[in-house]
Structure formats: C-alpha cells, structure tokens
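Supplementary Note 3. Input sequence used for the single-chain structure prediction.
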Amino acid sequence: MTLIEIFGSGCKKCEVLQERATEAARNIGLKADIVKVKDFEQMMARGIMSTPALALDGQLKLQGQLPSVKALEDMLKG
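The predicted structure, written as discrete structure tokens, is reproduced below.
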C-alpha cells in the first residue's frame, strides 16, 4: 500500500490537493493510505517551505503546487 501524505494547514488548496490525490489513486486502482499532516514542526523537519505539499512513501514530490488529477495519476504511476 502506498502512503500519500498531504501537508498543509487546512487551507482550501490543501483540501483540493487531498481530493485530487484521492481521485487520482482511485482512478488508477492504487491502494493508498492518504494522511493529512498539519503539524508545522513536522513540515519544517521535512524541508517543506510552502504548502500544499505531497509526499509518496516518505519522499517529497511537490510543494507549493496544485497539480491536476491527471498529473497526480502520472506521478502515482511512477
């Protein structure tokens, strides 16, 4: 199972990123745990300087961006 972490304070863009990541995983049939991280200390420790941000299996893939569902599908496929 893939771990998808969404980093953000709960702003609208962070919510949209979570919705799009959920849709992208569902569209490609990926079993994923999607976790929302709101703790700023944890974000800073991971080197996240702008939100929303997304990590796959612990590896930071994007920050400060709101990609399309298609772009997220491509990212999740590998």
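The domain at 2-77 is CATH 3.40.30.10 (Glutaredoxin). Strands lie at 2-7, 32-37, 53-56, 59-63.
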